[in-house]
Amino acid sequence: MSYLFKTLIAAIIIVLVTEVSKRSTAMAAFLLALPIVSITSLLWIWMETKDKVKIADLSQQTFWYVLPTLPMFLLLAWLLKNNISFYVSLGICCLITVVLFGLTQYLLIKQ
To answer: Does some domain include residue 74?
Structure first.
């Protein structure tokens, strides 16, 4: 599949969510919560490889890496509602997410 097509699809998703958020934050949040990128990636990998084991492994690993991202959303909302600047809030959330990713990676390797 061409890189241009893949890039175009990703850009359309980002623009769609951005535009929808101007009208409805609930609908934009719903779109963001959908695993559109994951499903699209799994479809492309399937079309290119037809490798069930690779898809299964990727799907399972994706599950574990979604978990450390979840606290970021609640923490970002809390920080912003407590008048912490957007960039500082986002930076704190990114740092905590990186730490949680590291912890997740450590726990997965330790299994």
So the answer is: yes
* Assigned domain for 69 exists: yes
pTM assigned to the model: 0.71
Total domains in the chain come to: 1
Does residue 63 fall inside a structural domain?
yes
* Rounded-to-integer distance, Cα 68 and Cα 63, Å: 10
Instruction: Give pLDDT, residue 1.
Output: 56
Q: How far apart are CA 34 and CA 20, in angstroms?
A: 14
Angle between helices 25-33 and 3-23 (to 10 degrees): 150
- Domain boundaries, position 110: 51-111
Residue 60 lies in a domain: yes
b/e per residue, 39-48, with b = 16+ CB within 10 A? eebbeeeeee
Residue numbers in the chain where pLDDT is lower than 70: 1
Phi, psi at 83, each rounded to 5°: 60, 30
